[in-house]
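Review box. Two proteins, two foldings.
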Amino acid sequence: MIILFFIFLLFSLFLALKRPSYFTVFYILASSKFLGFVDIESLFVFGGTGLGGPSLNAVTLVAALSSKNRFVIPKSYFYFIAIFLVFFVYGITLPTLLGLEGVSQAVIAGKEFWVISILIYFVIYRNRINTKMLLDTVKFIGLYLSWAYFVHKIVGLSPPYYLSDETFRGFFPTYISLALFIYYSDWQCRVISSNRFLLISTILIVGLVLAGHMALVLGTIASLIVLYLVFSGNKIDVTKLVVQSIGMLGVVIVVFISSSTIREGVYSQVELIVSGDDTALASRDIYNKFRWEAIEERPFGGYGFIHKSAPITKQYQSIRENRFAESFGVIDSGYVDLLIRFGYVGTLLYLMLWAGCLIKVLKNIKDYEFVQLVMVFYLLQYFVINVTWSVFSFSHGLIPAFIAVYITLARFKRSG
């Protein structure tokens, strides 16, 4: 296994140094567990710690810092990356200075933030990365995940590493959303026809629904509707919009009618939410109780990156031997996760970092290409989704977000 691990490292480093465009594809595929067939995190486990993801991020950073262009970074990128790294360093140093845990524990606890390496790589190798290939990769993964969810729902088949405890989890549903935004840009820029966009968007939306993150479904649809109504490349044709909407709705209805499994699953979920009996919603409050107690003790600065084995975790834990309450970090409550890491002040500043990129584009729309505006609206939905899913602090949200940030700040019509 050690030999295979070193082969993986050498191959990754070769791609990162010599074939930047292919490496970006490789990195994104790795984050998707290679479409569910290879999970480098579980494949390369040494001493009880999965080193696949961290080692790939380390290779990414080493390759970026080895480039002769490592010091040539546009200001817009520099400020974003520098401030993000400040939060990263803060998250590691704070708990060690407070004596809550060791440095190694803090570094491991903050591993989700290591994916900043891919944005640094994007920026440094921006002149050698094929942007179209990058976007096409996201579109492919989005469609692949949608079909994978659909096939699993209908016949029960799934890639081996997308099935856990009989639950199908694609990596990541955020790629489906991002793919839909990219296809929307293609449609508005007349790269694809209306009929093709209608078909593709229907497939992607069905995939989002089956993924089960309703905040992501609603955020994606709402953002795209606002984008269409306010920033459509052409004058709004209400008749055409209604016809297309009816067509999409018709396809969804056909899918529901033809599959009792999908229909019953969606109906039961809606009924649970409306009645207030949804287990996920009820349990979230229970599992977060000890986290809120911890936040109240350090409301302004938070705790940084706290490992689940740190003594302070056990001090506040009210529920034992439950994976949803085994650590301070929480994937199902984004703002709780940020508050416990950075406190109220840090969380506000962290969100301002992301909002700054969006405001810059919205204030100077004429200076940007349409795809950049689309990426802004993809990121805007994060502020809503983050209520129930930690997209600002976990890799399932950060990697697609960094792709969006890279596109937003990279492809200017004018320099700035």
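Next protein.
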Amino acid sequence: MVLKRSLAIFGVIMAVVITGLYIEVSQSARGLEFAGGGLGQVSASEIDVNLAVCNPSFVPVTVESIESDMHGISNDYGSLEMTGKTIQPYSQEKLQGTLSFVDFDAMKTFVDWTISNETGTDFNSTLLIKTKVLGLIPYSYEKNYNLEEFSNLVFGKGKWDCQLTQNYGDVKQQLMLVQARMSVAGLLYSGNIGMGDNSTKSINATNSTGNNQSSLGQ
């Protein structure tokens, strides 16, 4: 009788511990904060992006990957994929990834919408974040974003509780430079747009046969 009671009490304690651990894990993973970390190379249908991540919790969180599809009711725009990294407690890291679009027009539409702060557009993004808390406990979650929310996540500054101040410049200003180059490239049947972290290097426009038509410097 005493043994049964002890086992019952032990079971209750373990249930409480597991529940508390699950809550802590989910709060730590969902508590990650994101901000635009700058742009990398830009091609005819891809934009390399950096994403600053702040971990305001007291346990390390490993971001294994961040994946997102970008779509509308009648259109598919592309996807986002970010590589992972471990973010120590009360610290920040920068993740690298790529916005891949179905074609040049989809990329230009997305960039134009973002810069114009369009609302009510036919756009939705489902973000899947895969993490491990303490390097051991897997936890994944999904979140839906409209265009404004998604743009702020990837290019904006958002909430930031880490002690270090994010200092990656005005990402949307970089995006405006991409937009200007894309407009020129679109007129020339664009092939590739090259852009460094802080400035555009060149635009190599090609025709439908792949022959180089024009190269525009900065």
